Amino acid sequence: MKRNNIIVCLFSGITLLTACHDLDLNPLSYGSTETWYSNEIEIEMAVNELYRDAFWPLDEEGNTDWSDDNIYRESLTPFQNATLNGQTDKVTDLWSKQYKVVSRANGVILKAHRAVEAGASESKINGFVAEAHFHRACAYAKLSSKFGDIPLVETDIDIEEGMAMGRTDIALVKQFVYDEFDTAAETLPVSYSGVQRATKGAALAMKARYALYMGDYEVVVAATKAVMDLGVYSLHKDYRNLFLTSTKNAEESVFLIPRSVEYNVVMNVRGWLPRNSGGYAVPNPTWELFASYTCTDGLPIDESPLFDPHDPFKNRDPRLSMTIVPFGETFLGIEFNPHPEALEVMNYNTGTMIKNNDSRAVAQYASYNGLVWKKGMDESCLENAYNIDPDKIIVRYADVLLMYAEAKIELNQIDQSVLDAMNEVRARAYGVDKSAVGQYPAFTSTDRNTLRSQLRMERRVEFAKEGLRYMDLMRWKLMDKVMSKKVYMMLYPASLLIEKVVSQGDWFWPFAPEIDENGLADFSKIEAAGKIAVVAQKKWDNRQYLWPIPTTEILINPNMKQNPDY
Q: Where is this protein localized, as stated in its record (predicted)?
């Protein structure tokens, strides 16, 4: 293993010896650093490695969630149970893989000149180097937003140098990341023809996201405004369609990682599918997420006269029924109905009634809270639920608009541009232009506290299941509230649910939960009424606002200090 790679395995300890093999740390694109990077093909191969799906994890991905939008029955993640430590898989995985990105990007940045000296096109090589700067910036952004101070490695280092390295102050890391994004944006093109790679807009948008996490709102405004001024992005007209396999490289996608069945870059959605459609109906959207969607008058469900707790999908923001399967809707050709008395449902694919495996009265492990995901899934998922290939959208234009609005709100620079940005996102959900204010609940208030509350709720419903909620809660310092809540489900067995809820006319909820200024739902009164079940109690420790440095790093490097209280 050559010197530009060895720091990665050093940082990741003994356990990475296997991981280096599994992730092919020295693929053909890395050859020998003594002779590699000698032509355009080698440089391009090295840069292509940086787009691997494994290097672009989402905070809320797979079967578990670290926020309050997704739940796997009564199971809690280490984060939700306040047991996060330096051996937690998600902690060690992020650290090791992002430092692999740093190592590979460093190799391109430091050695690409060889190809130019050998006669390669300088403009093309400079473009690849700009991509490497982009990926290095993203890796350090992911690391520092989770761990705080981190080792900053810009050059080749040997084992001795690596063992002597400590953690670099977050202020220096932050400025380095901003500079890296700026360097990338100066050279990267506005767009490509027929390919999906990092662009100028991607560098600016990812800089804005990182700045938002760091609380540098002036930087956010400047970067998002620059993206908007490029004039190349717009909202996809159909919110539901945007996340399906049939939609590729949409005009809203500022940066994405393409998936492909042909190249076995796929995702598995079988667990999310309803049980009647051959899935497991886990993990599930939480009741907290379900309650956060406003009514069509723009008011929270505990304030709106339009909300009907017995028909909770009625008169709600359209994104609710595009994200969570409504009760009684035909989804994937079969009626979805978690009602305990609905023992059979219609299969419209066959025209026959079938046993309703999406009711716990029939199947014990049907959705515990009666909710199943819909976002990103359609009939194409039935062909092979283990292998579907929708784009993995990392940042989209709706996020750019809402980041701009939030930063302006926090700076107390509220003007029409803030309302326009928020209304453009909300109006799309209703299928109208933002100017059609009579056809959707437009944002009109210029009060800072009111807009902050509305913005936070808007982000939650717009980006549900997209991996952004976790960091939103972290930067808003709301985890202490979110992670002190209980996990609620329907009463079980079904006979108890019928006795205590259905027979008393209280299906689905007896009344609306209370919604606070951050859009967080409080179900304690419904619990006190005996209408719902508590299946778990989340816990919180303030130390978790920073992740622990992986234990192996602490053990092998005396200069690597742990974050407080781990």
A: Cell outer membrane
